[in-house]
Amino acid sequence: MTTDNIVEPAAAIPAATDATPAESTILTNAPVLTDDKVVAETLKDASTGDHKEATFSKEAAAVPKDQQKNVVIIGGSCCAVSSMLTAKTILPKTHRLIVIEKHSHFHYMFAFPRATVISGWENELFVPYTKMFESPEKGEVVQALAVSMTKTHVQLDREVPGFGNQIEYEYLIYATGSRHPEPGNLNDCDTKESAIARLREYQEKIKKSTKVLIVGGGAVGMELATEIREHFPEKEVTLVHSRDRYMPIYLPTMSKKCFKTMEKFGVKQIMGDRVIIPEGGFKDDFQMIKVKTKNGLEIECDYQVLCTGMTPQSDVLKTLAPKAVDPKTGLVMCKPTLQIEDDEFPNIYTCGDVANLNVMKTGGAAWGQADLCVRNIAKMIDSKKKSDASGKQVLHEKLGKYKPIAPQIMLYFGVAWGICQLKLFGFLFATDWKFLIGRFFSYNIHATRAWLWLNTPMSKETADL
User: Fold this and answer.
1) For residue range 279-300, what is the model confidence (pLDDT) as tens digits?
2) What is the pLDDT of residues 332-375, one digit of tens each?
3) DSSP label at 198?
4) Which fold has domain 6-32+183-309+408-453?
5) Burial of 296 (0-12, 13-18, 19+ CB in 10 A)
6) What b/e readout covers 137-162, taking b as 16+ CB neighbours within 10 angstroms?
């Protein structure tokens, strides 16, 4: 298997100790960011245009729930959390947020690559939505699947107490995200129990394997490869990436550092080539097979993990506004204000992975986009109270326009090694300098912050909720 586009690994980094994740001093000495700091750091570069905020009197009398208008968010991931935190301060009491999400718990996917390999802490990665809102007047989370839309309602796949099988909306944020292959995404696991069980299935598969093939060199593929090599140094790991460099939207130095670090971990890397997936996919029978690539290579392996492909979940929006969905990519086309690209529906916004924005699909980017959606909706609500001299309703303040943040990311390569691209003091750079990035190390990839976002601080008592 020695050709020009295969890189045999150098001496591997020593294996991790037998300590459990929580016992790793390298990780627990790093400060865990609080929710306020995370929000501030996530949004500080996310300019939403030169516009004033809509302002509403905090002294306004409470509005009964049955008289409130709904701002519906389809999708309960980072976009929903960001929307909730922003709405706390700027959404008037005449409106409340309704999050439609089929999962019973928030999935902290950033830690899935590690949880695919290391056991004993999976429960920390699934946070209950039960306390996301302080009261029904502030908002509610509806566990259901949105199946279609009209101009006024979202149709659900089931009956929900207090709502029936449809939810009325005045404004809507379409944030359904995209489907990724497991284990980077557990889209089909609707309960905490099923999601934890699925992660443990992957842990057992990796333990049973001897030669692992990882298809795809994105963040999930690279992190998974290094986690396996660190905790199971006796296993052979080969990563195949279709491009000639990793993370092409980031600085070239980011790719070089990823390459060298994985080489140190002992990951065999094949660049600029594609795996030929057999008809019907790979079988999880742990039989040693030879997998072929487009360039004619053969890779011996007994377990294969797919970490490629992203399918935007735009089918529900197509039932109402098919013109707003790109027929080639399936992404939702939107204006700079993040309103969907269909003038018939100025009250519908989009953000996150499903939006056709030329930015890296990351949680930080989605967070800033959702923040802008809520701010613009607040302005539209405010404009309904105002009119010009002729009595015509007008939008007095311009809606904010989305300005992409600089591409920033943190990659975890094992429990004590990382690579990041950051923007500090106006400069964008990639580094693996431990003195700088060590503060971001945490055995659970800072899953603790998600519990704070959703108003249920993590503890021994709450971790299994």
Assistant:
1) 989 998 999 999 999 999 999 9
2) 999 999 999 999 999 999 999 999 998 888 999 999 999 999 99
3) H
4) FAD/NAD(P)-binding domain (3.50.50)
5) exposed
6) ebbbbbbbebebbeeebbbbeeebee
